[in-house]
Design goal:
about 270 residues, Cell Cycle, Spindle Assembly Checkpoint Protein, Chain A, nine-stranded mixed β-sheet, two-stranded parallel sheet, elongated, MAD2L1BP_domain_sf, MAD1/Cdc20-bound-Mad2-bd
């Protein structure tokens, strides 16, 4: 179902039958769409889940090879293990910076959601800088929020909503264009100005991206709750967030995540300097 937001910008509404949205579901929706954006814009060579599995398997194999070299009974076998160990080390180094940044990104988002479960707006920006975006993805959450208590276990609701959101984005043409070489992905979260997570987020009260860019907008709404507020408010009119355990929040600003994800260089594409 599509609606018109402010400024006549189309956004798509994805409904859930529940009257609240668990804060852990928000975490998985953001990270799943993050993986989709990176893959569809050719910033990673495979799906993020597959890349994570590959990285874990490489680290496991590396540890096993270290043991095998020590236990090898012949020089020939030891040389074979050492050769394979060098190959595995190269694979780890190729992915290590990306995977460490994504891990820090996930940790930062978990901390923010734990601190403020009622997050209503999240923006993912792909480009050389937030002021010069190539693509913008805005996620809006208009449901009342049930805090997850710091638990971020994936469940069926998160899986279903994530698949719906990705199908919607594909149908809208998301990922149809790719940048020439690796670029960066930035995360912005709208939250109360009183939040202090300085190791992971920088306050950006006056943040705006170029109006020349038409963002992909998805709004997650609870079918059984008719919340009377705009889901896509202008940057100059921050929304009020409501949770099951907190009062209205008036002073809401943008925070930029310090952990900026840079795509992997592709041999087929020129690398940005």
């Amino acid at each position: 179902m599509e609606e018109k937001g402010e400024g006549e910008t189309d956004f798509t509404v994805i409904e859930t039958a529940s009257d609240t949205l668990d804060s852990s579901i928000k975490f998985h929706l953001v990270t799943d769409i993050l993986g989709f954006v990176l893959f569809m814009h050719q910033q990673i060579p495979s799906l993020l889940q597959d890349l994570t599995l590959e990285f874990d398997e490489l680290n496991t194999e590396f540890a096993e090879l270290e043991t095998a070299i020590v236990q090898a009974e012949t020089c020939s076998l030891r040389r074979n293990h050492a050769s394979r160990k060098r190959e595995v080390r190269m694979g780890i180094r190729r992915l290590e910076k990306l995977m460490n940044t994504i891990s820090s990104f996930r940790t930062a988002l978990q901390l923010m959601i734990t601190e403020f479960p009622a997050i209503q707006r999240v923006i993912l920006i792909l480009g050389s800088s937030p002021l010069r975006p190539l693509n913008v993805y805005e996620l809006n959450f208009s449901c009342e929020t049930a805090a997850s208590g710091g638990e971020f276990t994936r469940n069926r609701v998160a899986e279903t909503l994530s698949k719906k959101a990705i199908r919607v984005l594909v149908s809208k043409g998301a990922g149809s264009s790719s940048s020439a070489g690796p670029t960066k992905l930035f995360l912005f979260v709208e939250a109360p100005s009183s939040i202090n997570l300085h190791l992971h987020f920088l306050p950006k009260r006056d943040f705006r991206y170029s109006k020349k860019i038409v963002p992909f907008k998805v709004r997650f709404s609870c079918r059984t709750k008719n919340l009377e507020r705009e889901a896509c408010a202008d940057d100059t009119h921050p929304t009020k967030a409501i949770t099951s355990h907190s009062s209205n929040v008036d002073d809401v600003i943008w925070f930029q995540c310090r952990h900026i994800i840079k795509g992997l260089a592709s041999r087929a594409s020129p690398t940005e300097e």
